[in-house]
Amino acid sequence: MNMLLSSVFLLVALSLAAPAVALQVNETAPPISLRDSNNDFFYLSNYVNAPQPPLKIRGGKGELDKVKGIIVNFFSSTCKPCKNELPVLNSLVDEFEKKSIKVVIIGYKENFDKFIDMLDELKVDKPIILADPYGKAGEKYGVYGLPLTVFIGADGKVKDIIKGELPNIGKVLREKAKKLLK
User: Fold this and answer.
1) How many distinct structural domains can be found in the chain?
2) Burial level of 159, CB count in 10 A (0-12/13-18/19+)?
3) Cα(136)–Cα(108) distance, integer angstroms
4) At what angle do helices 80-98 and 169-177 cross, to 10 degrees?
5) Is 103 part of a structural domain of the chain?
6) What is the pLDDT of residues 83-139, one digit of tens each?
7) Of 55, 59, 61, 169, most Cβ neighbours within 10 A?
């Protein structure tokens, strides 16, 4: 009986720890609507054709900042692999901007006060910086380990996903970003 209870407890714990459905390549990217470091809302649909709550129109002229793709990276200030990866992402922002690709980093389950000093220390200042203090966006993206990087095409579809830290991350990011240009 004790063994049976232990097994049931383990299965329940595992089901609660892992996301119900992990995000897959070729699926429509879940909506993102989070505040940036200026306390303005960022909407994914302002950049790609993704389902989203009402759009925030820039400059009141009805212009949206559509791009060829977005690279979304979930991180945490306590994640050592994230601290290794964020400066590399930062160094690629200008190169990607020339190709009309935006880089967005999201502090997963943290407020700005938890991670902004770490970003300053790492000199990470070029990506769009968002906070997901309750983990709701991360949950939709199937975050269960960090870092998690998702490549979203202009059509709003997930083109690729990187889970965890990789060696030669700069090279890998460039290769996977090419999928956004097709």
Assistant:
1) 1
2) buried
3) 9
4) 40
5) yes
6) 999 999 999 999 999 999 999 999 999 999 999 999 999 999 999 999 999 999 999
7) 169
> Apex CA 40: angle with CA 39 and CA 42, to 5°?
125
Distance CA 24, CA 160 (A): 8
Q: Are 159 and 179 in contact (CB under 8 A)?
A: yes
CATH number at residue 174: 3.40.30.10
Confidence of residue 8 (pLDDT cuts 50, 70, 90): very low
CB of 108 within 8 A of CB of 143?
yes
Supply the range of the domain harboring residue 52.
23-181
Of residues 59 and 82, more confidence is placed in 82
Residues 6 or more apart from 13 whose CB is under 8 A from it?
A: none
Average pLDDT over residues 30-56: 82
pTM of structure: 0.83
- Tokens at residue 42, please? 């960022």
- As a whole number of angstroms, the distance between CA 55 and CA 35 comes to 14
Helices H / strands E in the chain, number of each: 5, 7
Instruction: Tell me if 2 is assigned to some domain.
Output: no
- Which residues are bridge partners to 162 per DSSP? 149
**How far is the C-alpha of 79 from the C-alpha of 115, rounded, in Å?**
11
Q: Work out the mean pLDDT of the chain and round it to a whole number.
A: 85
